[in-house]
C-alpha cells in the first residue's frame, strides 16, 4: 500500500482510540454512580439504539455527498460534542449528560463508519478486499489496545470529565491526519450514478436488495445473531469484572487490552493468509458462541476471561467475513444506501441485548442472560445453515416426484 495511506489508517486509529476511551468510561462511570448492573444495561441501550437507527439515513447520505467530507465532519463534530457534554454536566449535573454525550458521539461514529465502508473499495481497488478490511480492523484494534490503557491511566490522574476532553483532542488530531491524507493522495471519490429522488426512495431500494439479493438475508441474520452476544458482553463486562467477580477498574482495563491484543493476532493471520471466506465466518461464529457460553457458565474470573477473549478476539474476524461478503453481493451504485440499512438490521440486536440485561439481570443474574443469548446465537446460526438445505432438499424431492409422475 502507498506510503500516504498511512495517514488514513492513522486517522482511523486515533478516532477509534477516542471512541474506545468513551466506551470504556460510560459503563464504568455509570456502574460506579449507581452500583447496579441493570442501569449499565439501560444506559447501553440508550447509547447504542440511536447510532443504529440512523444508519439508513447515513447510508443514503453517502450516495448523495462525498463520504470523505462526511467522515471529516463526523470527527470534528465528535470533538465538539465531547466539549459540549462536559460543559453541560458541569452546569446541570446528572448521568444523563454522559449518556447523551455517548449517544451523540455514537451517531457521529456511525456516520464515519458508513463513509469508510463506501470509500474503501475505491481507495484500495487494486488490493484483495479481505486484506484491506483486515488492516482497517487492525487500525481499530490498536485503538482498542491503547484505549482502555489510556483511559485507566488518565482516570488515575484526572476526573472523568477531563478524560472526555482528552478524547475530544484525539478526534481533532484524527481529522488533521485525514485532511493530510486527502491532500497527499489527491483521492477524489467517484459518486455513484443514479437518480436520488426523495429520502425514502434510497431506503426502498435498499430494502428491495435485502429481500431479493441471494445470500444477503443469511448474512444479515448471522450478523444479528452474533451481535446478541457482542451486545450482552459490552453491556455487562464492566459490571461482571468489577461487580460479580469483584476486580478493580485496572483489571477491567487489562481485560479489554488483552482482548484487543488477541484480536490483533487473529487479524494479522487473516490479513496474511488467504483463508476462504466461508471458513473465516464458520470459525469465528463458533468461537464467539462458545465464548458466550463459557463466560456465562464459569463461576470464577479465569473462565470469564477465557470466554471474553474468545468473543472479542473472533468478533473482528467475523466482521471481515460479513463486510467482504456484503461488498460482493451489493451493487456498487447502491452500496451506500444498502450498507446503511444492512448495518442497522445487523446491529439492532445489540440494544435488544441491553434491554434484556436491564430487564432480567437483577432477577436472574447477568450470567443467566449471557447464557440464554449465547444459546440463541447458536440456534439462529443453525437455522441459517439448515433451512436453505432443507428447502433445497424439498425442492429436489418435488422435482424428482414430478419427473417420476411424468
UniProtKB/TrEMBL annotation:
Q: Which Gene3D superfamilies match?
A: MFS general substrate transporter like domains (1.20.1250.20)
Bilayer-spanning residue ranges? 7-31, 37-58, 162-181, 219-241, 253-271, 278-295, 301-318, 339-360, 366-387
Q: Which residues form the signal peptide?
A: none
Record's subcellular location: Cell membrane
Q: How does it sit in the membrane?
A: Multi-pass membrane protein
**Primary location:** membrane
What are this entry's molecular-function GO terms?
transmembrane transporter activity
Q: Does the keyword Amino-acid biosynthesis apply?
A: no
Q: Any idea which UniProt keywords this protein has?
A: Cell membrane, Membrane, Transmembrane, Transmembrane helix, Transport
What Pfam families does this protein's entry cite? MFS_1 (PF07690)
What InterPro entries is this protein classified in?
A: MFS, MFS_trans_sf
Domain of life, per lineage: Bacteria
Example GO CC term: the record gives:
plasma membrane
Q: Which PANTHER family match?
A: ENTEROBACTIN EXPORTER ENTS, INTEGRAL MEMBRANE EFFLUX PROTEIN-RELATED
- What name has this protein been given in UniProt? MFS transporter
The organism named in the record is: Burkholderia gladioli
Amino acid at each position: 500500500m502507498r506510503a500516504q495511506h498511512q495517514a488514513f489508517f492513522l486517522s482511523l486509529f486515533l478516532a477509534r482510540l477516542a471512541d474506545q476511551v468513551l466506551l470504556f468510561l460510560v459503563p464504568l462511570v455509570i456502574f460506579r454512580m449507581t452500583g447496579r448492573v441493570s442501569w449499565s444495561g439501560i444506559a447501553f441501550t440508550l447509547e447504542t439504539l440511536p447510532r443504529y437507527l440512523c444508519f439508513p439515513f447515513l447510508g443514503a447520505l453517502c450516495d448523495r455527498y462525498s463520504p470523505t467530507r462526511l467522515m471529516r465532519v463526523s470527527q470534528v463534530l465528535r470533538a465538539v460534542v465531547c466539549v459540549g457534554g462536559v460543559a453541560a454536566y458541569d452546569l446541570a449535573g446528572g448521568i444523563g449528560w454522559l449518556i447523551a454525550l455517548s449517544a451523540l458521539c455514537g451517531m457521529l461514529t456511525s456516520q464515519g463508519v458508513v463513509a469508510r465502508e463506501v470509500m474503501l473499495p475505491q481507495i484500495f481497488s487494486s488490493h484483495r478486499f479481505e486484506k484491506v478490511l483486515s488492516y482497517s480492523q487492525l487500525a481499530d484494534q490498536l485503538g482498542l489496545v491503547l484505549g482502555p490503557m489510556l483511559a485507566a491511566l488518565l482516570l488515575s490522574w484526572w476526573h472523568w470529565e477531563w478524560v472526555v476532553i482528552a478524547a475530544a483532542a484525539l478526534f481533532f488530531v484524527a481529522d488533521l491526519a485525514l485532511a493530510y491524507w486527502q491532500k497527499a493522495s489527491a483521492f477524489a471519490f467517484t459518486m455513484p450514478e443514479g437518480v436520488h429522488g426523495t429520502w425514502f426512495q434510497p431506503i426502498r431500494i435498499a430494502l428491495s436488495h435485502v429481500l431479493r439479493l441471494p445470500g444477503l438475508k443469511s448474512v444479515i441474520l448471522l450478523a444479528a445473531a452474533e451481535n446478541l452476544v457482542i451486545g450482552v458482553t459490552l453491556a455487562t463486562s464492566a459490571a461482571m469484572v468489577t461487580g460479580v467477580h469483584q476486580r478493580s477498574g485496572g483489571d477491567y482495563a487489562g481485560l479489554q487490552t488483552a482482548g484487543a491484543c488477541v484480536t490483533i493476532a487473529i487479524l494479522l493471520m487473516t490479513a496474511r493468509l488467504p483463508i476462504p471466506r466461508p471458513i473465516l465466518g464458520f470459525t469465528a461464529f463458533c468461537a464467539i458462541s462458545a465464548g458466550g457460553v463459557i463466560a456465562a457458565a464459569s463461576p470464577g474470573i479465569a473462565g470469564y476471561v477465557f470466554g471474553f477473549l474468545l468473543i472479542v478476539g473472533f468478533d473482528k474476524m467475523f466482521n471481515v467475513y460479513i463486510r467482504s461478503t456484503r461488498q460482493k453481493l451489493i451493487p456498487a451504485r447502491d452500496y451506500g444506501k444498502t450498507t446503511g440499512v444492512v448495518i442497522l438490521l445487523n446491529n439492532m440486536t445489540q440494544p435488544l441485548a441491553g434491554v434484556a440485561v436491564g430487564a432480567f439481570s437483577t432477577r436472574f443474574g447477568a450470567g443467566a442472560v449471557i447464557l440464554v443469548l449465547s444459546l440463541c446465537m447458536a440456534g439462529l446460526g443453525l437455522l441459517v445453515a439448515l433451512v436453505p438445505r432443507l428447502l433445497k432438499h424439498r425442492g429436489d424431492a418435488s422435482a424428482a416426484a414430478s419427473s417420476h409422475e411424468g
